[in-house]
Design goal:
The chain has a single domain, classed as Rossmann fold, CATH 3.40.50. Strand 1, helix 1 and strand 2 form a beta-alpha-beta unit. It is globular and about 50 Å long. It is α/β, with parallel strands linked by helices and 147 residues long. Strands 5-2-1-6-7 form a 5-stranded parallel beta sheet, sandwiched between helices. A two-stranded antiparallel sheet has the order 3-4.
Length: 147
């Protein structure tokens, strides 16, 4: 039924468990996987007339985000390779991870998004909202939520 699955990952323990389950699901379905990492944009916070400047330059921040994305995506790909599941990796910079996930699924031609139920727990998850919930609300592609 599903032939191309997008699996967003952030490197967390919950995300790693989701990668493993998604790979098993893809192997059973005969599907391929595209792993996705949403890189954060350079943070600049303004207070009043001044700005709090991060000691890291935008270029250094982008390099660190690229290294993190490569490491996390390589780990996910290794899980797929070990199981014999074809996979690809992609990432993008976004202030809206849920939209980046949906865009990545559309751009890769995926017919399913397979993602963890949530990354944040408790009060912070309630205040910030769940990226998974936002993907569920806005995606026209089916979403399978792993808990």
């Amino acid at each position: 039924m599903f032939k191309h699955i997008l699996v967003p990952t952030d490197g967390s323990q919950l995300s790693l468990e989701t990668v493993k389950r998604a790979v098993t699901f893809a192997r059973e379905a005969g599907a391929k996987i595209t792993f996705f990492f949403a890189k954060p944009d350079y943070p600049v916070v303004f207070y009043g007339e001044g700005a709090l400047i991060d000691p890291t330059t935008p270029e250094k921040f982008a390099e660190m985000a690229d290294r993190q994305a490569q490491e996390i995506l390589a780990n996910a790909s290794a899980v797929a390779k070990e199981a014999g599941v074809p996979s690809a990796n992609t990432d993008s910079v976004s202030d809206l991870p849920y939209q980046a996930i949906i865009d990545a699924a559309n751009n890769a031609g995926c017919d399913l998004i397979f993602m963890a139920s949530h990354g944040r727990r408790g009060f912070s998850g309630l205040l910030l909202g769940s990226e998974t919930q936002k993907v569920l609300t806005h995606s026209t592609i089916p979403v399978l939520v792993y808990r």
